[in-house]
Amino acid sequence: MNNIYGLSMSWCLNTSVFLIIAFTYLRILHATVKQGRSARSKAFQKCAPHLVVYVLYQTASVILIIIQRFPSLSQTIKRFFSILFIVIPPVINPIIYGLASKELRTSIVKHFYKCGSRSQKIGGV
């Protein structure tokens, strides 16, 4: 009974959050359709990183919920995925939002280009 209650509560919470987000994005889409291509492009650039982060979070959440329902799995595996659930989304979040910023993305590309050219010079010497 506990498993059924836990799964149903998880489903209800995740579904309600998804519906709120979907409603918000539908409203944004509806507003940008009237304004033209440039408004849609800007809206997509602003919304896409959030959707990627949300999908990653939900994926980690579903994996964690499913793993907790299997008592035969070792505690080490359960702890590992619990830590991943807590650590990975916050670590990936700034990377995804940072890549959405043109200035930051350009700076990162320049930095990696400089590092790559230095390693080629060192390797070629």
Automatic annotation (TrEMBL):
- What protein name does the entry list? G-protein coupled receptors family 1 profile domain-containing protein
Location within or outside the cell? Membrane
Q: Which UniProt keywords apply?
A: Membrane, Transducer, Transmembrane, Transmembrane helix
TM regions (residue ranges): 6-26, 47-68, 80-100
GO terms assigned for molecular function: odorant binding; olfactory receptor activity
Tell me which domain of life the UniProt entry assigns to the organism this sequence originates from.
Answer: Eukaryota
Q: Which InterPro entries match?
A: GPCR1_Superfamily_Member, GPCR_Rhodpsn_7TM, Olfact_rcpt
Pfam families per record: 7tm_4
GO CC, any one term: membrane
- Which Gene3D superfamilies does this entry report, sorted A to Z? Rhodopsin 7-helix transmembrane proteins
Q: How does it sit in the membrane?
A: Multi-pass membrane protein
**Where is each G-protein coupled receptors family 1 profile domain found?**
1-97
Q: Keyword Transcription regulation: yes or no? A: no
